[in-house]
Each structure stands twice: as structure tokens, then as C-alpha cells.
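Q: Protein A?
A:
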Amino acid sequence: MSRQAVGAPLSRVDGRLKVTGRAMYAADHPTDGVVHAAVVGSTVARGRITGIDARAALALSGVLKVISHRNAPRLAYRPNPSSNNPEGGERLHVFQDDKVLFHGQPVAVVVATTPEAAQHGASLVEVRYDAEKPSTDLTGTPAHAPVTYARGDADQAMRSAAVRLEMTYRTTRNHHNALEPHATIARWDGDRLTVWDKTQWVVGTQKELAAVFGIEPDAVRVISPCVGGAFGSGLRAWPHVTIAALAARELARPVKLVLTRKQLYSGTGYRPAYEYHLRLGSDRRGRLIAMVHDIKAETSSYEDFEEGVLAAGQMLYSMPHVRQAYRTVPLDVNTPLYMRGPGHATAAFAIESALDELAHELDIDPIELRRRNEPSEDESDGTPFSTRRLRECYTLGAREFGWDRRAPEPRSTRDGDWLIGMGMAAGVHTTRRNPAQARVLLDARGSALVEAATSDMGPGTCTAMTQVAADALGLTVRAVDFRLGDSTMPPTPAHGGSQTMASVGSAVQDGCDQLRRQAIELAVADERSPLHGADAGDVAVTDGRLHVKDDPARGETYQQLLARNNRTRLETLGSFTPEEPRFSMYAYGATFAEVAVDHRLGLVRVRRMLGVYDVGRIISPKLADSQALGGMVGGIGTALLEHTVTDHRDGRIVNANLADYLVPVNADVPDLRAIYLDGEDREASPIGVKGLGEVVHIGVAPAIANAVFHATGRRIRRLPITAEALL
């Protein structure tokens, strides 16, 4: 219908805005009369507040008010099941009582005319506590009742297996640490609330604020056109959002609240720590017979957060006997939340490390072992796979990475003082789809405006949606303007779980298809049109010009059509509602890593990595590479660097800063490469995509861990892998 935009390696349509600093993030929006807020966080993890002395803060020049549970109004806090809340419990009720549930919990807020005065005032507020000893250690606290799954008789099968392995893998808490800190500007106009917020779901934040304040969702507008990274931390409205709106209502002035880097560690969620006990049994040829998974993960004492840690153990490999028990452990901590590859990444570290251990035990190549255990269907429920091309990922990845040059014996390859190892791992992530809508307008100039209330935290949503719309409308990319991040736009699901392209992209496709057909039908019915009388199915659109496919000279432009019919625009509302699934739908990947380990110091350096992915249709190759390489970089952090340290005496996070909480920097990033299998998955979505952003992270940590074992002969079952563990 036009020169194809989908599949072209386009640069981001909003790239210039971002690199020149003109992109408007949450705290950047100019707001007349805005004042500034700073949160006072608790210095104990459990107990009650016995006193708050705000006199020194209130005496400070510029300080306007200090709000705490002692003077805050009662808030409605209606139930809100649609706000990405955890499975059970109740979210934190801000300033509603004297209870302290975790270290850093907001206990007061200082509002001042300048951010400096607010921060200084917050430091002067004295809070007294009746503190209790907190429980913050995953290993020493009773767990909730488990979520379970079983098929066959795993315990009996384990007893009869020729080969049995038993391992415990541990992962530490990881924090999102996006470049843009969480921030909110709140303004009330009478009984209507407008919020500029860093969020991955404007509709979810809208509904949560409406529930908290006891008003209708239509009375709340949430705006978030640009998000400076989030990785999952913006999937729910955190307490600071409520605090900003509460302070704005109390002072009858707009309020801006920006969390400090330290406050992000207690003010927003994180990837929870896990203890993953795994038993597996196989025959002597490596055919898996049984796996038993006993999993514990941290959650808060007031909410029960669960994530998709069980799926991979049920369907990634073929075996007749599986038993799983997943327990969350309530601790005196703030609530975790989804972080890139949630659940699946943790499961992959355990399962893919265990497969590598089994391969070593049986002296079988790790790729060959995985091939021998490829299922023909999803054995968790017997459904066929929509597409599953892991074998191709293995074959292509092995060839491109030079797997045949890998010496099978661990600790057998050196480069001076460095021990060299290769490792690989599979990754899988659920293909999520949810209902979405998109508004499409074509104006008299022949330009299109497409709107949807989705977000863009970095994958390039605006660009990819523009590409889909351009092709569907038969326009150039420059003639399409895609806008997002406003709750007044057509609703969409949360921008997470790799569902945006499949869900919102399919709604955009539907809306644009409708509008193109509307224009064609208008033309063929118009006696003054060159297309009058033509079969609508024979009319195409190229570069904004409607024409007969076999007679390109016969046609007219969108502008000519609308002008002659006295139409200022055409408008449609596209929608996508996923059908009840008939297939098992997942995105797949195989990650290959080469590491070097200093044999004297235990230092690990990743030399190169390759990811090969079965993710359906690639809308934008340049954006896909950005996602894949970014996922690998994040995986390096998970494997080797990121480690939250908690002082269990008082629940304080010791390294709540970017000096002590290590994340990958340029010097840590090696040669990275991503390959995508050609194809599409029309069962997963009408536009053939399955979702990419999560799966590119999922196999990275186990691939690195397996490479470290191959280099050193030392099996490290705890992340991150440190020099101390290798010495």
C-alpha cells in the first residue's frame, strides 16, 4: 500500500526530542504556581510512630506545610482490582495511621516554595518510634501457603531415575534504577485532578487515584508522554503519587514531588530475592524424567506479590513428571513488583543452570541435551505451540557463535592469566495480549493522527506504531503522528509484559485498516472520483494516493477526495480483543556467552554475547536491536553486579545509591549481537508479533553462569557471581 515502513530500520521518530533535551518527562512540565514536596521516610522497619516534631521544619523559610498521619484527611482507599496490585493484601494507606511496615515508608511530607527548602525541611522533621525487631531475611521467616502444580508422580519418578541431581539456587533483590527518577506533579481544579506522572500505565494510575480519593475515574487525568526508563517500576501507582495529590489538595496549589535516588529503593518495587530448590532426574541419555521445584520469594507483610516463576518449569522441556510449590515469604519490606523478565528470568537461572549441570554430569553437549528434551506440545495443558523454533535458535546461534570451537572440558582454555569459557541458555516468556483501542484521524492535508493511552519507557512505541499506521494507511512515516500517554485517549493495557506491540499495535492496525477502507468506499461511490465504480478490493493506497492496483494512473489523493466531499477529516476507532487462546504462545530465545575469568583474582569479564530469538514479526529492526542489546546489558548486571544489601537489624538498605549498587557501565559491555528468526505468529496477534522486550533478558544470567563454570570448573549457584565466590 506504500513503500513498506514495517521492517525498515528507522530511527526513532522522537529521537531528536530526547537527545536535545526537549522531551518532557514527568518533572519537566511547566506548571504555574507549583510548589515542591519532599518525603520523610521512616528510619525503622517495623513499629509505631509515637511522635512527630515538625517545628524546626515549619520555622524554615519557604516551608508551607508538613503533613503526616496526625493532620492528614481520611482517604477513601476503595478497592481497585485493576491497578496491577499484588495477589492479596491491601496497598499501603498513606498517612492514615501510625503503623510502620518497612524502612523508608513515607511518614510525613514537607511542602515548600523551592525543592531545596523542602529537602532541608524534611531533614529537620523529628520522628519518634516504638520500634520492633523487623523480619527482613528470606531464609528465617515462615512462608505463605504455596501455589502448586503437578503432573505425574514426580517423587516416585525421582526415586527410580538413573541420574538424580539436587541443587539450590539463590538470587538477590534487584532494583530498577532507571535514569529518570519517579516523579509526580499534581494539580486540582475544583474537584478534578490532573497528574503528570512517571508511569507505564496512565489508565491504571487514573483508576488508582480515583479509588484512593473516592472520585470517579473521569475526574482524574493522567499525562505521561515520555518515560525515562522503568523496566517495570512504573506499572503501579506508588505512595508518592498519592502524597503529591494529597498535598496539592491540602494546599490548593500544584505540587511537584521527585523521589531521591535513595528513596527509589524503598518507594518503588524491585525484583524479589529467591531461594529456588530444584531436583531433577533423567536417564543415562539425558532424557528428563522428573523435576521438583520448591521456590521461596520475598514479599511484603501487607501485600502478597506473585509473578510467573512457574511457567518455564511446566513447558520448556519435555518430561512426564513435574511438581512445583511456590511460596512467598512475608517480610517487613516494601512490596516487590515486576522487573524485566519477571519470574521467567529467575526460573531460567535455576532451570538452565541445572540443565548445564546435568550435561556436565552425563558428558553431553549442553545444546544436544536441550535438543533431546524438546517437547512437541505444551505439556502443561496439552495445547499445540503457535510457533516454537528453539531448535533453529540453537542451530543458528551455535554456528554464528562458533560453538564447535568450545573445548568440552571445563578449565581447559586459557588466554594468559584468563580462563576462557562458553555457556548458553534458553529463554522463554509468555506472549501476553489484552484489549486495546486506538483512535485514527485523517485530516484534509492527508496527514494522520493516531492516539492511544499507552506508554513508551524506552522500546520506541511511538516509532513502531507509526510504522504500522503508515503501512496500513498507505502513507509515508512523516505523514503519521502517533501520540500517547494521556488517560483521555483510548484505553490500553499496561506498558509491560511485552504486550504493547501485540495489543496496541493490533488496535492501531485495525483502526487504520478501517479508515483506509472508509476512504476507498467513499471514492468508489463518488461519481466525481476517478475511482468511481471500481471494485473496492482492487483499490490500493500508495504514498497517500488511492489508485487501482492494475492501473496506477487511475486514482486520486486523500486530500483531493476529502476536499471534493467537503470533509475536514475521516475518523475511526480501532480495537483489539484477543480471542480465547487455542495455542500455547511464547517468545523464545537462546543466549550464548563467552567469559574470561582471572585465575588469580576471580574477576569475570564477559567477552561477547549472542542472542537468537523466535519472537514473530519484527516491526522495527533498529528498535529490536536496542531492546535485545539492552536486555543483554541488564542480564550482565543481574549475573555479575546487582546486589541489594539489607541490614537485617533495622531493615535499612545499605547500598541505596548508584555508587554502591552496581549496574553495568560502558566498560562492562562487550561485543553484543542479536539475530531474529524470520517469520510471524498470526495466532499471537493480527500483526504477527509475539513480544520481544522481556525474553531478551531472560537467558542472559544463566548463560553467563554456565560460561563461568566452563571457564573455571566452579559452579556458582548464587547471583550475582562475585570474585569472592570464585576464589
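Q: Protein B?
A:
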Amino acid sequence: MNKEEYLEVYRHSLAHVLAKAVIEIYGKDVQYAIGPQIDDGCYYDFIIPASVTESDFPAIEDKMREILKRRENWVRKEISRSEALELFKDQKFKTELINDLPEDEIITIYYTGDDYVDLCRGPHVENSQELFNAAFKIKSISGAYWRGDEKRDQLSRIYLYAFPSKDELKAHIKMIEEALERDHKKIGNELDLFMFDPTAPGMPYWLPRGWKMYQELLKFSRLIQSKHGYTEISAPLINNKKLWLISGHWAHYVNNMFMVPGLAGYMSADAEVPGVLESMDDAPDEAKAVKMLAKAPLYNRENDDTMAAKPMNCPNAMLTYKRTVHSYKELPIKYSEYDVLHRKEKSGQMNGLFRVQEFRQDDDHTFVAESQIEDEIADIIATADEIYSTFGLTYRAEFSTRPDDFMGDIEVWNRAEAALKRILDKKYGEGGYEINEGDGAFYGPKIDLQIKDALGREWQCGTIQLDFQLPHNFGLTYQDADGTLKMPVVIHRAIYGSFERFIGIITENFKGVFPFWLNPYQVGIVPIRQEHNEYAAKVEQALTAAGVRVETDYSDNNMKEKIKKFKNYKDPYILVLGDREAAEETVSINLRGSNKQLQNVPLSKLVEMCKKMNDEHTLELIDSI
């Protein structure tokens, strides 16, 4: 048994011990549902005839340890459906699970001692003694709907951390505490970067400070891409259903798209014969307009003018390419795009900036001849290296090959995969990347770049995908050197991936202490008294002219209050200006994250330092002159 299999048995067995402990404490009226193992432990769902709070966790943990000390045998039995229904006749959730099993299913139960039995496939330990040194701790209790259906029973879900040793448990809890300290939602609120509102679930509001940082990421992306020959485009945010039918997204992605019903389908609420509402201005009042909207069908209308907010930029890039005849001499053609995208997500899947319904990507669609694939992808990887290293990020490459349901010419696939493999072998060495056989998209092989965050978690941000299908769907061609028309290959590419997710990752990586060039405001200016405001304005003007983002507190608040405000926002440099600084045209700099100060710095030198950090996109703050 390998470690992964051992952990599954270990944690699943502890879930049974947790359930037994809850029943022994709260009585036979407890309804117990399911208790699977998860990545860092397990959980069990119950209906408990009492309120369970965090203060009750020690008692449950103590009861679990008491149960383990009994060294009870775990006995597996196969029973008939009728026997199972009789055994669990007082347990509504177990009864439902039994009734849902296929007729030919072998039904197994596990006894832990003589007084606790659970419906379970197993496997489990043979005796509680095997869990005697178990390291576990109750993590939390939360509400959960039976089978994830909000119309069903609401259960109490008790989560348990579980590890083979106390050291592993301690290290994991420490990591969780660190994750809470780094939580981008918490930091985003503290630094006033972004917010969410129930009226737009999963769609962040970027506040002034956060939007400044967002714009810097855009600016940096555009700077790098301009050096690599990209041309930026922008396209409509909604398109008619016809476009998504051509691209294939309607068939494969419609459930994740936001629909915008067209006016042709809106019927007059009072008309005896179906009619067309030419304009919302024709509606006699708001109530009638709402009634019309409620009755309007979204799909399968004649002359369907249903629109959809775009979940990706690909079809728009295809149309942009198709607008004119292209020569092989123009290739590669690189269309970068930063338009807003929308994707419907289940409410339980949304998580701050990590999983949103509205976002931007540093998207690109590059049109190449087959012979150009290798050089172009090598350049994309070099671009990714340049961008990721600027943020101190490391990554791991994954290569996904042809799936069973691939489309296109198998020989083209073979050549494309061979080209990608040559690039990866040269860049990372043989065995220096992971190969996912058969996990490519149906339209082409791909390379995914998995970046690692400060907590060791991996995030798929960068992706490089070859596409033979969309050019075919849209009838794209270029004129080759011999005068014949050939179909280009499209390379889909993103490096940040979603800006929102990337910002969430770097916010947690930097713990809100962003590099100088990226920080929303880079310099906070504190005039000590009102008579120093004039010189503060001069310093602000000089820095602003040099492209430095400055905020100055001209209020009559005391100096300590002003400094504290800028410290709370984690401004890298806080300038304190008094009589001497005004007379000598210098500044005194309080450095972020330390008690260190730089005294008597000439204003011209400060401008030079700030420009250097902005131009070079350095990670470190200049802390000496």
C-alpha cells in the first residue's frame, strides 16, 4: 500500500470514529449521512439534536481518543438489501443511499466494536489500535445540504484534520494559519483593493487603489508583448448565438455562458396574437416591461437573435483574422486581447479572486504556418520566463497529448506533438516536465504552466494550446509561396491567465507588500505642519512628473496619524517633510517594513531611485543611497 492509499484508509477510518463519538455524546437520535476522506483529513455530515459549537470540539476529540483506546475490531460484512434496510431503518440518509444502489450492487457494512455500524465500501483498518497514534484535530463545523441540494435537509458538517504524525499535523495547521494571514480576500479588504456585492456575484468591484495595481499589470504585459511583436485588438463583449454555434462553444460551453435575449422574442403581455416589441420605449410602464421580460423565451425562436456574453476571445480573433486575405509573408500574426470575459460558475465554486464570473486574461491568438510552430512556442515560453521571474514565481510545465476524440489530421498532430516535445526537452531536459497522455484538447495538444505560490500550492495560469479546429470551422486561409491557399494553425496563449486569479496569487505571495513598481501608491508624503504643504506639493509634482504614484496628506492631522495611515496601506516610501527638508530640497524617507530611515536624501536622488525601480521592475526596495 502506497502512502496515498494508506492516507485514504487512515482518514476514512477516522471519519467512522468521529461519527461514533458524535453518536455516543449526542445519543441515538443522531442522523449520520456520509463521511469521506479529503486532502487534509475527513468530514462527516449529521443531523444532531443539539447545537454544536467550537467549544464542544475538545469533548468530541476526547471521545474519539477514548474510542481508539478500546482497541475495537473493525468487521466487514456483506448483507442483502432487505437486511440493510432493516439495519438502518431509523437512519433516513442511509436508507436513501441503499435504495439508490443498483440491484446487483454488493452491499457492505463495517462494524466498529459492537455498537456502531456504517454503510460503507471500505476498506478500513482491522483494529482501532492501528489508529492509536493518530494525529487529528477538529477543524470546523459548517452547514451543508444533503447531496448538495439546497431544497434538501441541512446538515452539520464536522471537518477533521488527520495526519499520521503530530509533526505533520502541527506543520499543516501552521500552514493553514499562514494561509489565513495571507488570504487575498482579507488583504484586499485591508488595503482597499477590491470588493464584492451580492448584486453581482463573483464579479469584483475594483476600487481606486486596486485598479491602479490592475493597470500596472496591464501596462507591464503590454510592454513585454510589444517586444515580442504582438498587436492588440478589442472586440464586442456580446455576440449572436450564430458565432458560438460556428466556434463550437454553444455545444460544449452553453451552460457556462451568460445569455442576453434579443428583442425579437419579447411578446406583448396583453396581446391576443403574438407580436414584437420594437423597443423598450414601447412598453407603457415598468411593470408591463417586467412582465414581458418574464414571458420571453430565450432559445429556439425563429430568427433567433439570442446573444451571449463571451466566455473567451477565440471566435472574435478568428473573425478579425478572416477580414482580409493574408500572405505567408505576414505570418505569424499575433492578436493579443484584454477584453472582459464572463463565465457562469456555481455559487459554491466561487472563491474571492481565484474563481470569478467576470475577468480579463492576457489572451493571445497567434496565426502561424505549421513550420513556424516550434519557433513561436519557444518564444512564448521565453516570454513566460520573463514575466514570471519578475514576480519571483517558479513554475512546472505539463505537456498534454492527443485525446481519443481528437479532430483533424493525425499526421499534423504527430508533427505538432513532436515539435512541442523538442521545445520542452531543450528547455527543461528530458523528464523535466510532466506528460499527460491523452489529456490534450480535442483541437490540439497543449502545454500548461503550473506556478507555485508561497504556500507550495500550484495554480494553472499559463497555457499554450495548438488549435487545428477553429481555423477549419471559420474557413481561415493564407496564400502560400506557391500561390495555393493553406489553413493556418492557431496558438492560444495566456501567461497571467486570469488577471483576477493572478492578482489573488501575488497578493498572497507578497502578503500585500507589493514590489515598488506594482504597489497602488508608491510614495506617501507627510508634511509635518501646514506651512510645509507648499514644499510637499513641489515634491509631489516632481515625483508625478517622473511617473511615480503619490498620495499626500495635506490635512491638519498630526504627523503620527498621517504616517500610520500610509503604513496601513503599506506604501513603500513615506516621506516626512519639515523645515530642514524644505530649506535644503531634500526628503526624509521612512522605509516600509522597518524602522530604518534615509535622511537628507536630495529630491533629485529620490526621483532617480523611484524611476530605477519602476523601469527595472525590481522586487527589492532600494533602502540605501
